[in-house]
Amino acid sequence: MVTTPSPLLADRFAPRPEFGRTDLIVVDADPATAWKSLRGLDLTELRGGLAALAVWVRDAPERVRGRPARTPTRLTWNDLDAGTDWMILGENPGQEIVLAAVGKFWRPVVKWMPCEPRDFPDFAEPGYGKVVWSFTALPYGDRRTLFSSEIRVTLTDPRAWVSFRRYWRISTPAIALIARSVLRTAKNDAERP
């Protein structure tokens, strides 16, 4: 039987987050099947119209500025790592994957800060936020799995903290929609016969 990794990788990369949220869902599939579904998830196939709307609204400032809309045909965790400002910080195969990004998320058009995974833990340039987004798939009873999505945010200085706090209050419902949609989509894929 697989046990919960201790500490979680998220604990290593964001041990004392200033903001965060966790979402959970029980999957009627064994952990290996559930993990395969979560790890192979294509984010372009997220279920839930409200999650798509949340992403569309977040990208609106880019469209207003006349920047072409990015519509990937496929977007897996590895695609995020290779083609965006998000990075995979680590993985416990079969149990947990941790992604992260550095930026000024509270701006209408996010100002991303390029960062390598090895530099993420020590990144401290003033004015930025560091977000860690982890997903786990752990045994839940005999034949089920508990999926979790946890978002942890730390800020590099008090001014960034104040700016992010305002953004967090407004954006948390949309962030929750997206996180739950990721979990629901992976659950549906894992439970499909």
Q: Count every helix, treating DSSP H or I runs of 4 or more residues as helices.
A: 5
CATH class: Alpha Beta
Helical fraction equals 25-40%
Low-pLDDT sequence parts? 50-61
Pairing-aware structural class of the strands and helices?
A: alpha+beta
Indicate the CATH architecture: 2-Layer Sandwich
* Spatial shape: globular
Q: Which sequence of SSEs, written as H and E, runs from N to C? A: HEHHHEEEEEH
The total strand number stands at 6
> What Rg do the Cα atoms give?
17 Å
Q: Tell me the count of domains.
A: 1
Protein topology:
Layout: H1 9-13, E1 19-27, H2 31-39, H3 49-64, H4 77-83, E2 87-92, E3 96-104, E4 111-112, E5 129-140, E6 144-155, H5 158-191
Antiparallel strand pairs: 1-6, 2-3, 3-4, 3-5, 5-6
Helix pairs in contact: 2-5, 3-5
Protein name: Polyketide cyclase / dehydrase and lipid transport
